[in-house]
Amino acid sequence: MTLGKNHTPLPQSGKPVLATRHAASLALMVVLAGCAAGPDFERPAPPVSETYSSHADNALVTPAPSAVDSAQRVVPGMPVAAEWWRTFGSPRLDALIADGLQHSPTLAAAQATLRQAQELQQARAGSTQLPQAEIGASAQRQRFNPGALGQDQDPREFSLYNAGVTVSYNLDPAGSNRRAIEALSARADTQGFDLQAARLTLAGNIATAAFARAQIAAQIESTTALLANIEEQRDIARARLRLGNAAADEVLALDTQTEQLRAGLPVLRQQLTETEHLLATLAGRAPGQGDVPDFALSEFTLPRDLPLVVPSQLVRQRPDILAAEAMVHAANADYGVAVAQMYPQLNLSATLGTQALTGDALFGGQSIVWNIIGQLTQPLFNSGLPHEKRAALAGFDAATAHYKEAVLEALRDVANVLVAVDTDAHALAAQSSAAAAAQGSLKTMQRRYQLGAASHVEVLIAAQQAERAQLAVIAARADRLANSAAFYVAMGGGPVPAEVTE
Asked: Can you give the pTM of this predicted structure?
């Protein structure tokens, strides 16, 4: 509809002109009531690129690093399981994550914040979308001086009683209230996505800590065996020194190695204890409560298939990106509120009540009073409104920039973890080959020792090399597990059960 273009002959009498104006005003208000100031929110366009890194293909396939380690492949389009941590095959890990999701104070705080945001949105909707009704009653005693009205009479004292119901409603022709409710709803969505992100992060942290606990325990076991080996070699060197068959420098070198390894064990035990404390805290328990599983690397199964979603789908799945998008939506609605403040506001109110000089007459037929008020206001001069509008627009620009930053960070996370999955497999393959070679050297040296062609010291040195190679294998296997968990987190996890966001 275009106003001011079509001309209609004017009515010939005053009454039709007045009726036409009233109808036109009413029609304009109805049209405005169905509108909301400011632009409607449009979701940001997804990334155009369908690849994450030039160093790793989306359909990545890693070979089996050794006879006991499995191959792994990245499967584009494969859905992410809701409870993705179950792919590691550890019932004890599943139980610990379930405890964490149920008892974590971090999640409890996120759930409470979500409820708060939802209630604020409902409160604003309830106070603006429906008429407001209030009931009131009053009684007052006052003294009136007729001289104030130019009357020569004695002052009078009387009582006045009032009771009534007032109904009011803001017609909101520019949509300020609707935009404000939209902003609160978007912020509630943000809190919901933050809750999903906290849940995903908690599961990832528990899994990573469990893998770290298993790695440290294996390192302590291997280091203890290595220390016993070097101590035996040092004792032999000391005996040879007493017999004059060894130099003091050899004994001192072995003493240095022994004490360095011995000094490393308390550090490893401290790391093990701290990791157990971390696991207890993540599960919502006090560190002193204990009852943390003694995870071992052997109880975990490496997921053979890792699900991959393309970037255009990732931005519609990762909760941190969705939270940033919801904040853009809220900023867009805030801008609409600022724009609506510059348009007319229409408030309607009506009061029906009684008014009498005595309490007994308060509900008599002659005591009924009423009024109907329609108030239309239009800002005429308010130098602050344009600044508020520009401030809201700047807030929208900032939220948009934060969204773009969240998308770029998410793409970088996935690109890094793709490269890490590939690197871990090759690193484990190299370490497994080195460990196999060290074990072969040890077996050869043991056979030579049995035949008298090698000394016991040479056997001990070969055993030390085998233990050190095994330490590297332990670290590489733990890295594969940890980066596989990081892959699931980078994908945004799977669908979140409804009860998590309630």
From this structure: 0.83
